[in-house]
Amino acid sequence: KAGVTQTPRYLIKTRGQQVTLSCSPISGHRSVSWYQQTPGQGLQFLFEYFSETQRNKGNFPGRFSGRQFSNSRSEMNVSTLELGDSALYLCASSPGLAGAQSYEQYFGPGTRLTVT
Amino acid sequence: AQSVAQPEDQVNVAEGNPLTVKCTYSVSGNPYLFWYVQYPNRGLQFLLKYITGDNLVKGSYGFEAEFNKSQTSFHLKKPSALVSDSALYFCAVRDSRRDDKIIFGKGTRLHILP
């Protein structure tokens, strides 16, 4: 099976702009989670989508949003970019069904966002 | 609220020696516990998990982890370190009683010295 793919891999934006990142999960996986990784904060949970519905949300401002499509592909959007949004954004997919097996996550390579 | 702590930012081990990367957690119910590894410029890779059963869990690349309920710990171990084990290691926890998010620790950078 193909792994989790994320596009683009690298992105440079300026403050105030907005950005959309894309994630394609492993075939058959219905849950997609997004994380922000920075050297000082480690991995911080942004949100999780399951069957097109947001199932969980982290403690990020409303500038961060996401959605999931019927084919389980997911996008996240960051509006009004700030310098502090520079980070590696990771997407993870899992089967998403009830039970312990569903909690094993498979990560994509990430999108490196630089805000100048 | 659930949380996970990795008390060491960095661990240095000589090649061939045993290694331990520490992790402690806090959840209200029973924990689901995970270890992930991140190599430079790559995403996270799953190493192992504890869901229930044996306290000693074996995973990929010769790693194992011991679940200790009384100490709320889930330390990652390997009997003999390789230089190629040098990477960033993340511990993660999820509360089994709730359909909640997975919380990751801040990571521990492991340096294996040749």
Distance between the termini of chain B: 41 Å
Question: Tally of extended strands of chain A?
Answer: 11
Order of helices and strands of chain A: EEEEEEEEEEE
Give a quick account of the main beta sheet of chain B: strands, pairing sense, barrel closure. 6 strands, mixed
Q: Helix content range of the residues of chain A, please?
A: under 10%
Structural class of the helix and strand makeup of chain A?
Answer: mainly beta
Number of helices of chain B: 0
Radius of gyration computed on alpha carbons of chain B: 14 Å
Major sheet summary line of chain A: 7 strands, mixed
Shape of chain A: globular
Mean pLDDT level of chain A: 91
Uncertain regions spanning at least 5 consecutive residues of chain A: none
- Beta-strand level of the residues of chain A, as a percent range? over 45%
Structural class of chain B: mainly beta
Backbone shape of chain B: globular
Helix-strand sequence of chain B: EEEEEEEEEEEE
Give the oligomeric state of the chains in this entry, treating copies of one chain as homo and distinct chains as hetero.
heterodimer
Largest interface: A-B, 23 and 24 residues
Contiguous uncertain segments of 5+ residues of chain B? none
Rounded radius of gyration of chain A (Å): 14 Å
How is the secondary structure organized here?
The complex is a heterodimer of chains A (116) and B (114).
Chain A: E1 5-7, E2 10-13, E3 19-24, E4 31-38, E5 42-50, E6 53-57, E7 64-68, E8 74-78, E9 87-94, E10 106-107, E11 111-115
Parallel strand pairs in A: 2-11
Antiparallel strand pairs in A: 1-3, 3-8, 4-5, 4-9, 5-6, 7-8, 9-10, 9-11
Chain B: E1 3-5, E2 10-14, E3 19-21, E4 24-26, E5 31-38, E6 44-50, E7 56-58, E8 64-68, E9 73-78, E10 87-95, E11 103-104, E12 108-113
